[in-house]
Amino acid sequence: MLNDVLTPPAQRDALRDDSASEIPAAAAWTAPLLWQTGDSVVDLRESIRAKLTFALGRTPESARPRDWFAATALALRERIVAACMASEKAVPNKRVYYLSLEFLIGRLMSDAMNNLGLTETTRAALRELGVDLDAVQDAEPDAALGNGGLGRLAACFMDSMASIGIPAVGYGIRYDHGLFRQSFEDGWQREAPETWLAEGNPWEFVRPDASYTIGFGGTVTMSSPNEGVIRRHWQPAETVRAVAHDIPVVGWRGRHVNRLRLWKAEAGEPVDLARFNGGDHVGAVAARSRAEAISRVLYPSDSSAEGQELRLRQEYFFTSASLQDLIARHVNERGDVRSLPDHAAIQLNDTHPAIAVPELMRILMEDHDLSWEDAWHVTTNTLNYTNHTLMPEALETWPVELMERLLPRHMQIIYLINWMHLEEQAKHGRQDPAHQDAAYLASISLIDEAHGRRVRMGHLAFHGARRVNGVSALHTDLMRSTVFAHLHALDPDKIVNKTNGITFRRWLHNANPGLTRLAVETVGSGVLDDPALLRGLEAHAEDPAFVARYAAVRRQRKEALARLVAERTGTDIDPEALFDVQVKRIHEYKRQLLNVVETVALYQAIKAEPHRDWTPRVKIFAGKAAPSYVQAKLIIKLACDVARAVNDDPEVAGRLKVVFLPNYSVSLAETIIPGADLSEQISTAGMEASGTGNMKFALNGALTVGTLDGANIEIRDHVGADNIFIFGLDAAGVQAREAEPGYAARAIQASPRLAAALDMIASGRFSPGEPGRFRPLTDDLRRRDQYLLTADFDDYWRVQRSIDAAWRDPRGWWAKAIRNTARMAWFSSDRSMREYAEEIWRVRLS
Questions:
Q1: Which residues are catalytic?
Q2: Which of 464, 536, 691, 824 has its CA 20 to 30 A from that of 456?
Q3: Is 273 within 8 Å of 183 (Cβ atoms)?
Q4: pLDDT value at residue 299
Q5: N6-(pyridoxal phosphate)lysine modification sites (predicted)?
Q6: Residue 705: which of 825, 790, 799 has the closest Cα?
Q7: Confidence at residue 436, expressed as pLDDT on a 0 to 100 scale
Q8: What is the pLDDT of residues 493-537, one digit of tens each?
Q9: Where residue 4 falls among pLDDT bands split at 50, 70, 90?
């Protein structure tokens, strides 16, 4: 295991003799801060035993794996507390506050053990108790606090900030059920509540003393306490309590601990006793149910007016609680709220917390008596905004009617911000016709008047932020030229680029200990602290002995993935085959459908020439579709039906298999990604802001097949064009093709292979009991094809066959894979965080 090379000498001596031989000689270095507590196997063993007995009330004989997990987590948490308290006592010059509706942190035990250097100590302690660490880790549920890339990025950033010494607090919602647990019923996605908190969360600290009142609805009144100064006061009709739950975030080597503070919604009074005693037992708890619904489920469906309102309530709830909390902390430490920009940097992760702009203004003016001008100065020098999408449907807007009803004071502030913003154009002499026409004013207004009067949250966040950043070079350039083009022209220095990154501690050290051990033995233990040293692996890309060891590590991970596939789907797959993997949220722009259609075309080709020497390939899919996203759920069903037909066909046996793994999660990804040979990153160019899965795959040695979209471009630039497979239109080509009427019909007519695949799908070959089942997909491709699948299909087929040829040259393939691993250091989230710290937050590393 990785921590064979992480465990310091004093702890290694405390391990059993039979483990000592596993520790590479390259492992000696100075022990990190928290290792200096003198923990031994005996200490930890007894601590776990005590937690099991006195905290959980279990005996070793009656304890389940879940009990052993909780006891072990509590014992490890105890070792984090000292550093937590040290972090709490120190008052840094400046803190970062990271507001995100999602934190997809996954399982925390492996992170804690790895960063504290206690993996092998924990393994040995549990072994002496007759318990297997792997079984204990498997008993930990994934924290269901996110959906996909947005939440996983936030988790990586929190890990990196703690590891490189940026004082930070992450703020989000403590969802009872998260998104949903996905299962398949005859290939159809089924959703069930994700019950990750059913038996509590041993990592968290409940902070009932840190609670804040959040208001909704009501009226706004005016007063004039000082002559000539009018003050407005919001009197909400409904209030909800936000109660803090803290999860410590331990940095690498335990040198620094930050905090993830999650808010749980509670009613002010748990029950209306008068109504209860009057016999209205259900009505007596109605207010409690309404309040607690706010933190019940991540992303409630917004297909109804009630769902839209709940989403807005969620966003305001956690944003307001977070701002109240950080301001209270600042005032307690510094006194004057006017100095907030000097000591706090607030990052809005996407538009979900964009309501922070009027809420911070409201708090500063109403609770701290600042003038509008002073409040605006504080707000616009403290807030920063990360944009994650260019797609109009994903850039949040809220109906004005809903905002006025739910947040009346905030709408007043938004109207005034907008009026002053538009007046500013005249003030700066923008009087020429190009700046006077209604279309220009409409493009920069915070209110979209053309689609039923809606508040543009992206525009609001842009206007209220000091810096706005994209998350890849292409995405940032497109932000400047498309969705924020006119706003960018008004403030050309505001938009900056900060390409995303991933934490190598989770996605290499934890997920792929064998590859990590090989890197340590090859280039030295310093690679664990400085990923740039991975570059040293490149010198061995042509060395047969090293290549053999690298290939052996990859084989082990493929075998682990094959076992997982068999366990979850009942399908046996051959580790000798090319493992072709596409795992991510199901969305039409990510083009899982392109992959499925190519799979059908490949199936047809194999059937037509069964005696040809085909490259064995396993297509592996995973990902969830939003419950109300009908087209995405139909794509999942098609993939499952194609898998059934292909896997049951003896003519393609040994050449092609297709599997769809249910309930994709962080812990599932930690097995899938290290076992992949090919990483599918095939979104329509210009639509994926960055991606981080592409980075995780490449780091672990999977070769990328992808479009010139998001961070794929920068990955190509770093790993080299010869070590990645690029196809399809670029962003400019996409824009040009979209302007051509009827491009889809012409592309299908020009491609007999594509036409045949679509005909097979439309004919009902994969849905004999319902021949027209997939017509909505094929008809859409023939008529509209919004995401240019037809335009890119032939080039996608071409590059896939070149991949077949490359796989047949193992020496060349492994050289490419090694270069991918060696050249990925720049994509560390540690680098991303240093750039944010220096160029956006202006914060010093502690």
A1: 388, 584-585, 590, 692, 696
A2: 691
A3: no
A4: 87
A5: 696
A6: 799
A7: 55
A8: 999 999 999 999 999 999 999 999 999 999 999 999 999 999 999
A9: very low
